Amino acid sequence: MDGKERYIGVAERRARLALRHRLTPSTLAETPEDVADSLVALHGSDPATVFLAVGARLADPAGTVDETARALYEDRTLLRMHGMRHTVFVFPADLTAVVHASTGLAVAARERASLVKDMAKAGAPDAVWLKEVEDATLAALTRRGQATAAELAEDEPRLREQWVYAAGKSYEGVHTLSTRLLRVLGVEGKVVRGRPLGGWTSSQLRWAVAPEHAELDVAEAQSALLRRWLTACGPATEADLKWWTGWRVTEVRRALAAIGAESVSLDEGVGYVAAGDLDPPADPAEPWAALLPALDPTAMGWQYRDWYLAPELRPALFDYSGNVGPTVWWNGRVVGSWAQRPDGEIVWRVLDRTDVGREAEAAIGEAAERLRGWVGATRVTPRFRTPVERELSV
Predict the structure, then answer these.
(1) Strand, helix or coil at 132?
(2) Residue range 376-385, pLDDT digits in tens
(3) How far apart are CA 193 and CA 45, in angstroms?
(4) C-alpha pair distances (Å), 71 with each of 4, 50, 198, 203, 278
(5) Is the dihedral of CA 222, 223, 224, 229 positive or negative?
(6) Could you tell me if residue 19 is inside a domain?
(7) Where in the sequence is the domain holding 348, given as residue range(s)?
(8) 275 pLDDT exceeds 50?
(9) How many domains does the structure of the chain reveal?
């Protein structure tokens, strides 16, 4: 630190978060595409999260399910695919080439090599045979439009091949080719997830051939993704960026230099904002409350979270793997959690009452009613359960 960096404090960071993540009454979005564009990516590991994250940010959430399904499955303006940290996200369509080149290629190479190596160890057929199965699978998927792994195996029976991995080890198991191969094809950008077999909360998703996209230079794609993310989520530290992208620190630093990111002073050290983004918000964020779902990209956006989430709340709000559960927000910080009971009631609990008075309680209650209004008869259980969510949902 040379003392020249502009200091951005907690209050300003919370205001930036609120305004750029479409969480204040005046910044609510019109369409799911607007939401995804503002957030860069929606966590897709739990299908319900995509819809809940969108609904929390729409000015009129009544059409959340239909409009998000339209964007995902009809217009294909949003695509569910593997991205940062080998995690499934939903991206704006114009970002898919950037994500694939910046984060997918390296993961894809490792995944294919791992698959071929595991097959060889188990005495399974070689890479040439694997390529034949791959080509037949993609051809079948093209004919069908969308299909499950079981449906594809009807056209290409070799997808049902199984082999034992880690034989003799405590973690010995059985791999089915369809599971491993489709995952490889996913990170390689050849297939994406399609319509669910059930409703919008279903985790049983069909596969579809990925739309064609340009092959970009890796360094240029990394710069493009980092610029987009800093614009939406900056400031952030180098550690935050390394964690969110899953890149090596050298890649993060190269991209920061390439986009001319500007350094700032944060409570936890040196941070960065996009070029030209040093000025504070022109207007302060008005008071706001939100009920955000498990794995929401706002709650999961940074590795260092003390500026919006008190450390003492983490044991109640996160599972053992570090996945955040449903969160209650008041004016830029997490103050509690929420859940849905079997009868459909949305219940919530404030865990941190600092500055949470009558106004906050009323706003949180309105957000809960708003959520129940568009969720309707659907019952939502997070894929990753947390202690307080389990307790509230009974």
Answers:
(1) helix
(2) 999 999 999 9
(3) 11
(4) 45, 12, 17, 18, 34
(5) positive
(6) no
(7) 289-393
(8) yes
(9) 1
CA 216 to chain centre: 22
CA 103 to CA 120: how far, in whole Å? 27
Residue 34 lies in a domain: no
3-class DSSP state for residue 258?
helix
- Provide the phi-psi class of 391: left if phi over 0, else alpha when psi is between -120 and 50, else beta: alpha
Segment 207-213 mean pLDDT: 90
Asked whether residue 251 is assigned to any structural domain, the reply reads: no
Distance CA 96, CA 295 (A): 21
Residues 157 and 154: their CA atoms lie apart, in Å, by 6
Is residue 7 in some structural domain? no
Predicted pLDDT of residue 125: 81
CB of 226 within 8 A of CB of 241? yes
Q: List the one residue out of 96, 201, 54, 80 whose CA is nearest residue 146.
A: 80
Return d(Cα 389, Cα 349) in angstroms, integer: 10
Secondary structure class of 380 (helix, strand, coil): coil
Sign of the four-CA dihedral 389, 31, 276, 231? positive
Which residue is listed with tokens 């204040």?
Answer: 24
Give the separation between CA 13 and CA 223, rounded to whole angstroms. 23
Structure tokens at 136: 């037949």
382, 389 Cβ separation under 8 angstroms: yes
pLDDT by residue (tens digit) across 126-170?
888 999 999 999 999 999 999 999 999 999 999 999 988 777 788
Residues 40 and 34: their CA atoms lie apart, in Å, by 10
User: What pLDDT is attached to residue 3?
Assistant: 56
* ∠ CA 62-63-65, rounded to 5°: 115
Q: Which helix (H) or strand (E) holds 182?
A: helix 177-187
Overall pTM > 0.90: yes
Per-residue tokens: 306 = 């003390």
- Cα separation, 374 vs 304, whole angstroms: 33
The DSSP secondary-structure symbol of 95 reads G
Tokens 């998703």 identify what position?
Answer: 205
Question: Is-contact 388 349, C-beta < 8 A?
Answer: yes
Residues in CB range of 130: below 8 A, 6 or more apart: 115, 116, 119, 181
Report yes or no: 296 and 288 within 8 Å, Cβ to Cβ.
no
